[in-house]
Automatic annotation (TrEMBL):
L-aspartate binds at residues 82, 165, 219. GO terms for biological process: 'de novo' pyrimidine nucleobase biosynthetic process; 'de novo' UMP biosynthetic process; amino acid metabolic process. Heterododecamer (2C3:3R2) of six catalytic PyrB chains organized as two trimers (C3), and six regulatory PyrI chains organized as three dimers (R2). GO terms for molecular function: amino acid binding; aspartate carbamoyltransferase activity. Carbamoyl phosphate binds at residues 54-55, 104, 132, 135, 260-261. The keyword NAD does not apply. Belongs to the aspartate/ornithine carbamoyltransferase superfamily. ATCase family. It comes from Dokdonia sinensis. It is an enzyme of class 2 (transferase). Keywords: Pyrimidine biosynthesis, Transferase. This is Aspartate carbamoyltransferase. Catalyzes the condensation of carbamoyl phosphate and aspartate to form carbamoyl aspartate and inorganic phosphate, the committed step in the de novo pyrimidine nucleotide biosynthesis pathway. It catalyses: carbamoyl phosphate + L-aspartate = N-carbamoyl-L-aspartate + phosphate + H(+).
Amino acid sequence: VNHLLGIKYITAADIDLIFKTADHFKEVINRPIKKVPSLRDITIANLFFENSTRTKLSFELAEKRLSADVINFSAAASSVKKGETLIDTVNNILSMKVDMVVMRHPNPGAGVFLSKHIKASIVNAGDGAHEHPTQALLDSYSIRERLGEVAGKNVVIVGDILHSRVALSNIYALKLQGANVKVCGPKTLIPKYIESLGVEVELDLRKALEWCDVANMLRVQNERMDISYFPSTREYTQQYGVNKEILESLDKEIVIMHPGPINRGVEITSDVADSGQAIILDQVQNGVAVRMAVIYLLASKIQ
Ligand code: CP
């Protein structure tokens, strides 16, 4: 059975194939008839054990554009609340003849764990602070679209690296494609192992912005935070928030990214988030084509 459990488990050639397939689907979904019949015989269950707006809707739309049958499950409104386990929940859903599972879960490694117990393909839609592979793929795809290629580009990931599955998956994806990667943020929000991944740490935001071609601004994840670790929100914004003034003082125009949801006025001001320099909504738009590609390529191994 084939899965997408993390960028850690795939190769640069896999990413290249996903992007070429996504290029095709991006062209398809810009046509008046946006649907293709490719996955007519495939049933996909979207299992969300944690909240989501973008990822959940993007996967559902990608699956429907491919003509798959789609069922949606939200843990908050399910028998998980009565104590049913993850494996029992998934096996009950699979017994209804489901071929593929897209899962978001608060526990790191939930997808890897599940892959040892079920026979369906699994796509990780975010597992705790571990990985969010399709987010990293759509992020790199969006850099490629804006700058022509990812190889050789300087990318800084700014903010709460410690709690971020987006950061880890982006680091794996960017390094695989030959980008130079730095992380920037308060020392308390940068994990000690990060340099072992071939990533430099820069504590000074201005220096990081002067160096980079692309800045990927992350949300401070208060919901995963031990509050004693954290500088105050005001301190964080003063030292690590990106605003128009700092961007205009640089000698080049850098690309601004954000995976969403945005804390406007904390890690990024509205005048930056809504500017032409930001590709935040392009990232969301590209997410549908990239997820179509991932699902299509996995499903072609099931059929
Ligand atoms: N980027 C992202 O994962 O957003 P959601 O949590 O809304 O899915």
